[in-house]
Amino acid sequence: MFKQLKTIYILLFIIGILNIIALSGAYIGVYIGANNLEKLKREQISNKKELKEILLTQGYEISNIDIELNKIKQELQIEIQEIDKKTSEKFIKEKVVQEEEQRLIEKRLDSQISKLEKNLAESVYDLRNTVNEWSKRIAFIECSFDVNNFSSIKTFGSGTALFTNGVNILTNKHILISNELYPNSCKVKFTSDGVIYIIDKNDFTIPINDNDFGLINIKNPKFNLAKLVNSPAPICANKASIGDPIVILGYPNIGSQTDITATEGIISGYDGNFYITSAKVEQGNSGGAAVLIKENCFLGIPTLAKIGMVESLARIFDIRIILGQ
Predict the structure, then answer these.
(1) Which residue from 134, 163, 185, 290 is spatially nearest to 231, judged by alpha carbons?
(2) Which of 32, 34, 122, 305 is the right S-S partner for 314, CB 3.0 to 4.6 Å?
(3) Which comes out higher in pLDDT, residue 163 or 44?
């Protein structure tokens, strides 16, 4: 019995010890868990602090970056303003320069236009004066030929009173001679004089060569005609240049028969003893006057026109060849 009680007490003791150990383990576990939890809390707090410090640091850096960006932005704005200012000033200067250049150009153009208008007016005036001056020297010539006892022909042309010693009229030979026939008579009339002069073959001179010119002499001109041509006409001493303006004076068949007809043109080229001209020359102009406008001198005799496919170019017999210059 006693042994049994002893055994029970020992068991109870052991059980108590085991409970104590168990409780101690639980306490230790709780303690350790609490410590771990506390440690974890501290770590979380520490991490939060570090994160906060990091965020604060980054925020500071971001703030600094913003400041720098604002500074750069302001500097860029200042630079842009300076560029705009310089660009504006440059634009204004360029505009001023362009306006000044435009003004100078307009001024030059106005000056050139005024000069051209003046030259044109002077040219028109010179041409009108030239025509008026030379027209008194231009004669209308009509020659009659008896072909046989039953028929006759007439030639028409123009002539120019160039020389004194009476009145000497230069014209084309083909007006004074037709198919080797001499005229029975020729009528010569100056519009400025109004008198009709009758001449025959004894009153004109024909060269023995093939040059197409002849000279009519009016021995007893009326006072008005003698006065009109009382001095020799100016003769062109030098060869005219291509492009020189000229005027043709005469009595073309398609022009007026009561007054001279004037056509203007330029020297277009050369053809042996002839000038080529763009001025209109028709039948009846032969023997008239080709006047070089710039020197107001007699250039030669309008003689013929060569007809092309569309247009024609007239020839002027050079007076220097006629005079043997």
Answers:
(1) 163
(2) 305
(3) 163
On the 0-12 / 13-18 / 19+ scale of CB atoms within 10 A, 194 is exposed
Task: Tell me which residue of 235, 300, 293, 312 sits closest to 272, measured CA to CA.
Answer: 300
Integer Cα distance of 217 and 65 in angstroms? 115
Three-class HEC string of 252-272: CCCCCCCCCEEEEEEEEEEEC
Rounded to the nearest 10 degrees, how much is the dihedral formed by the CA atoms of 14, 18, 19, 21? 140
Tell me what the mean pLDDT of segment 114-123 comes to.
Answer: 60
Q: How far apart, in whole angstroms, are the C-alpha atoms of residue 180 and residue 195? A: 29
Two tokens, residue 135? 């027209």
Distance (Å, whole) CA 133 – CA 303: 22
The strands making up 167-171's β-sheet, listed across from edge to edge, are 196-199, 185-190, 138-146, 152-163, 167-171, 214-218, 204-205
Rounded Cα–Cα distance for residues 114 and 97 (Å): 25
Residue-wise pLDDT for 233-288, tens only, equals 899 999 999 999 999 999 987 766 678 889 999 999 999 999 999 998 888 888 89
To the question of pTM greater than 0.70 for the whole model, the response is no
Q: What is the token pair recorded at 279?
A: 């001025």
Mean pLDDT check: name the lowest of 1-10, 206-215, 233-242. 1-10
DSSP secondary structure string, 145-156?
A: EE-SSS-EEEEE
In DSSP terms, 167 is beta-bridged to 218
For the four alpha carbons of 196, 198, 203 and 209, in that order, the dihedral sign comes to: positive
The answer on pLDDT for 190 being more than 80 is: yes
Cα–Cα distance measured from residue 127 to residue 125, given in angstroms and rounded to the nearest whole number: 5
Q: Which CATH code for domain 136-322?
A: 2.40.10.120
Task: Say how far apart CA 106 and CA 305 lie, in whole Å.
Answer: 45
Strand partners, 153: 145
Sequence-distant (≥ 6) Cβ neighbours of residue 274 within 8 angstroms: 300, 303, 315, 316, 317, 318
